[in-house]
Amino acid sequence: MPKFAPKLQTRTDKLAILLSSMCVLHCLLTPILLIAIPSLAGVALLNDETFHRVMLFFVVPSGVLALAIGYSHHQKGGLAISGILGLVVLSSPLWLGHEYLGETGEVVVSVIGSAIIVAVHTVNYRLGKRKPALPQ
To answer: Which N-terminal residues, if any, form the signal peptide (predicted)?
Structure first.
């Protein structure tokens, strides 16, 4: 593994955790903000689909990169598969659509996907901090 890989994995794991957490905050706080401050309804950044697309544009590449580097370090295939599952779940509201999931379903699915991603990247980050096992 190249020398820069552990540092890059650490940074991309942290970035994926941050971005996934932002998705959760967006999903949970947007309805509250729109009720509290109705004039925010016109702000494009709060548009669920636009926000979701922009976040996925950053979450997917950073997540895949961190998982790939982590896998090359610790060889935990289940962890990589769980991370990919989290990315698929998080992105599913975009391709399943509002008509299929409904507003509440989109929030629930997004929060579940984000929680999976945060959990996987937290484990990946911790495993990345360990020294690799010596080959036998």
So the answer is: none
What is the pLDDT at residue 31?
Answer: 65
Give pTM, 2 decimals: 0.72
- Domain containing 43 equals 5-129
If one counts the domains in the chain, the total is 1
d(CA 2, CA 6): 8
- Which residue would you say has higher pLDDT here, 31 or 110? 110
Q: How many CB atoms lie within 10 A of CB 17?
A: 23
Burial classification of residue 46, based on how many CB atoms lie within 10 Å of its CB (0-12 exposed, 13-18 middle, 19 or more buried): middle
* Residue 4 banded pLDDT, cuts 50, 70, 90: low
